[in-house]
Amino acid sequence: MTKTFFAEIEGDNPSGVAFRNVNQKKKMIAYFANTGNATIAEVAKELSFSVPKATSLLGELAQEGLVKVYGKVNSTGGRKPNIFGLAPDAGFFLGIDVKQYHINICMTDFQNNMVSGFEQFPYHLMDNQESLDELCQIINRFIENLAIDRDKILGIGINLSGRVNHTTGYSYSFFNFHEDPLSKILEAELGISVFLENDSRAMAYGEFCSENVKNEKNVIFLNLDYGIGMGMMINGHLYYGKSGYSGEFGHIPIFDNGIICQCGKKGCLETEAAGWALIEMAKESILAGTSTLLTKNEKNLDELRLEDIIDAVHQDDVMSIELMAKIGDNIGRGVAVLINLFNPDLVIIGGSLSSTEEFILLPIKSAIKKYSLSLVNNDTQLKMSMLGERAGVIGACLLARDRLLSLEY
After folding, report:
1. Would you say domain 215-384 falls under CATH 3.30.420.40?
2. C-beta of residue 195 within 8 angstroms of C-beta of residue 157
3. What CATH architecture is 91-204+392-404?
4. pLDDT in tens, 261-296
């Protein structure tokens, strides 16, 4: 049904009239995606098309199944114009958010409605071929169990932590042992276009497009997990920096502690504020004889995971709560730096640690007041993530759709 249009945008670069026609269709789809349903007159005015041209393009897109009529405008007199919008079932997008010990997956339609539900699969992220093969197997099994045909899935957004170049499709932190870009390797295994992204930036975009953000244009999203990631929306657009690796918030050298970070440097924020640092603190406290629920199941300390500490916090475990407060204070010091530098409209706290809610939010707020300039932080809102674990997959789906159609984001 949509083969004609997608064959045009994925084929050889068109020129002349063909290029103009494809570009105009993209603009029209972008308008519906970003604004919602509209009449022909509204589309023509917004995109500076003539009404006949807008009518012709809409006719072609409707014939290809990309747009549909959603009724007529309520009017007291005269002929009521039709309302057009994107057809939800014109295509679907998969969002894959790869975590340290699990994978989140969901599917959305052309209007970004979640149609498959949100699913989580056990998985251990390791930088080897076996881990990459398992990732592909999990995704392929998910697709095979869907009620729609594989060829209706137009794009897959896959998020990985670390340094990811979304324009070239290379990941330099995981699975960088092939000459070809990781995105192309995944496409060959999955048979669908793949769009690679850093997990924190995808989460930032998903959250930015949610109801958590109103009119704010300059938004910082913090992904507090085993590591500390950051995604930035500057004037409503994702900010990448010159080489595409902006947002390494966790590697600000903020502590003079001599602790070697997982990046190989010393004193990074992550050494005293990330999830892996929290685990080390918990191990030290347990070995020192501190009473805690974490020892009740007689679990080997080497098997201690971040989720165990978060669960203990929710069970009012005193040691875990105190460590979470310490981590929150250290994170707050880093957030104070960001506020002093960027003076953003909004800072959103996300990632697995955000599930502890007030246990981490209150010490972060306290540290912000202590370390940032009051004249600056008075203008910055601080919110918890609204999407939680779904932020990454929703962001991945949105970015896959936008990049396939070359929409602005």
Report:
1. yes
2. yes
3. 2-Layer Sandwich (3.30)
4. 988 999 999 999 999 999 999 999 999 999 999 998
Which residue, 159, 143, 174, 259, is CA-closest to 204?
A: 159
pLDDT digits (tens, 9 = 90+) for 382-402: 999 999 999 999 999 999 998
Residue 123 identity (one-letter amino acid)? Y
User: What is the residue type of 154?
Assistant: L
Which tokens sit at 405?
Answer: 């159609």
- Which listed CATH number (1.10.10.10, 3.30.1520.10, 1.10.3210.10, 1.10.3720.10) goes with 3-89? 1.10.10.10
> What's this model's pTM, rounded to 2 decimal places?
0.89
Nearest-angstrom CA–CA distance, 344 and 377: 9
Q: 313-320: which pairs have CB atoms within 8 A and are 24 or more residues apart?
A: 313/356, 313/359, 314/356, 317/292, 317/293, 318/291, 318/292, 319/282, 319/285, 319/290, 319/291, 319/292, 319/294, 320/282, 320/292, 320/293, 320/294
Cβ 339 vs Cβ 380: under 8 Å = yes
Per-residue pLDDT tens for 58-76? 999 998 888 999 888 876 5
